[in-house]
Design brief:
By secondary structure, this protein is an alpha+beta fold. The protein has 11 helices and 15 strands. Among the domains are: 165 residues, no CATH class; 151 residues, Heat Shock Protein 90 (2-Layer Sandwich).
Length: 493
């Protein structure tokens, strides 16, 4: 599990940004809304002041009275739109206002004119024509923004707008922001989780794929697809996996050939001399038999048909043995002298074993042998598949030939520490201690007095030895009280 996953980082970043944004809006509302409202209200007051003076210039406002109904409606509309109460006093007892109860405005204006109201007010702007104040009315417990002064015709005026509304609006706005912010935070978490999952899932797949490739497992492929950059990266991973598998196969083959070349130069002459000596020795007996029985036939030692048939059968049997021996010797010769190239490839050993057992099923039935092989899971190994099949077939044939007692042959396949280990066990008598070290040698035959003979003419297990050593892999045999187990190992990576 990654300590700092991209998914967690994305959710944290998005959530942090949103929380910061909501918090900033909340603080702006809390600290700056009122000053902004006051500044805006000052602008509205100045506009209203300008409209009153313009009405005076146009002759519409005269002696505290509006002579034009349309103009009066316009002033009232402007004042109501901006939540402004106004009072104009002509100095002769005439008043123009947009409120029904004008006494509060009259008293407040009078207080400003008598310098009695300023002590409880905060001056926001002061000019020769007007003054803008922030004041508190103890009678109705309300805070106001007020503007008072003289118009161009020397009449006095007062503009008032309550400040309490903006404070309440700020509270409502903040509560609204908190509610909406909470919903947005929840939606952000869900959305960030969903989209980060869609983004990180293929990335995690690529990470797992890279781990498998690091372990030289090239079976896994990127399957999420996509037409974006991650999809293109996945496709490149797949191509790289295929090329790496091919390259490793080639490297293993080259490395194996290099090892063989080094060893071959040292052993070549010795092996050739040994081979010729063994061949001449092994062929001497069947050739002598064939020659003797052929001469007997020629000289007519026996005249009856049964004897002649016996002589012919002996000659054919010995010739067949010689033929099989020569084939095995040629195969062994090619292996020992490195005349055959060993091509390392990756294949399923489980499938190979099942194929060998299937081809030998008739033989096992004829011999009455119970074969056990329960491996179902595929096990992939690196080796020359054809030569591994030859080893498996030799082991199984050998087990069939020597199975005794219950006549059980059990094949097991397991993987340990990067190696696949195959064992072939058959019930019966164990191999004699004095023979067990020599059964891999060419032309060696265990003494028949020890109850069993391994390798036929002494070549089969030598072929196994040659193949496994060409792979540079381990092989061997284990004795048990109730039977014998042959085994070999191959690389799974």
């Amino acid at each position: 599990m990654m300590k700092h996953s991209i998914k967690r980082q994305m959710i944290t970043v998005f959530l942090g940004l949103l929380v910061s944004f909501v918090a900033a809006l909340f603080l702006i509302n809390l600290w700056l809304l009122e000053p902004y409202y006051i500044g805006n209200k000052k602008t509205q007051f100045i506009d209203m002041y300008g409209e009153l003076n313009q009405a005076i210039k146009d002759g519409i406002l005269k002696d505290g009275m509006l002579t034009d109904e349309e103009a009066a409606g316009h002033l009232a509309f402007h004042a109501e739109k901006n939540n402004i109460s106004f009072l104009v006093a002509d100095g002769r007892g005439g008043y123009l206002t947009n409120v029904h109860d004008k006494e509060q405005l009259k008293n407040q204006l009078l207080g400003y004119l008598l310098n009695q109201a300023q002590k409880d007010s905060k001056i926001l702007e002061d000019t020769e024509e007007y003054q803008i104040n922030q004041s508190w009315n103890p009678w109705n417990q309300t805070e106001y923004i007020e503007m008072w002064g003289e118009l161009e015709d020397q009449s006095q005026f007062l503009l008032r707008s309550p400040l309490e509304g903006i404070k309440e609006s700020a509270k409502i706005s903040n509560r609204f922001l908190l509610s909406i912010g909470s919903i947005l935070i929840l939606l952000t978490v869900v959305s960030a989780w969903y989209f980060s999952k869609r983004l990180t899932t293929p990335i995690l797949e690529l990470a797992a794929l890279s781990d498998q490739m690091a372990d030289l497992d090239f079976n896994a492929k990127y399957k999420s697809g996509g037409s974006n950059e991650i999809g293109e990266l996945g496709a490149n991973f797949n191509r790289m996996s295929e090329k790496l598998e091919s390259t490793i196969s080639e490297l293993k083959s080259v490395n194996n050939r290099l090892k063989e070349d080094i060893e071959q130069k040292e052993q070549l002459e010795k092996m050739r001399n040994e081979f010729l000596g063994n061949v001449s020795h092994e062929l001497k007996t069947p050739i002598a038999l064939i020659q003797g029985y052929a001469e007997g036939l020629k000289e007519g030692i026996s005249d009856d048909a049964q004897s002649r048939e016996f002589y012919c059968d002996v000659i054919m049997d010995e010739a067949a043995k010689m033929n099989q021996m020569v084939k095995n010797l040629l195969a062994l010769n090619q292996l020992e002298f490195g005349d055959e190239d060993i091509v390392f490839e990756r294949f399923d050993l489980t499938a190979l074993i099942n194929g060998v057992l299937q081809s030998m099923e008739i033989l096992s039935e004829q011999e009455g042998i119970h074969v056990i092989f329960r491996q179902e899971e595929s096990v992939y190994v690196w080796a020359d598949e054809l030569k591994v099949e030859q080893v498996v077939r030799n082991y199984v044939s050998n087990a069939f030939h020597h199975a005794g007692m219950e006549k059980v042959v059990e094949i097991k396949l397991r993987t340990v520490d990067g190696k696949a280990r195959l064992t072939v066990f058959n019930t019966g008598a164990p191999i004699a201690k004095e023979d067990i070290e020599h059964i891999w040698e060419k032309f060696y035959k265990a003494d028949k007095a020890h109850s069993r003979e391994y390798g036929g003419n002494g070549i089969g297990l030598s072929i196994v030895k040659a193949i496994m050593e060409s792979f540079h892999q381990k092989y061997g045999v284990n004795n048990y009280d109730n039977g014998v187990e042959f085994w070999f190992e191959l690389d799974v990576q």
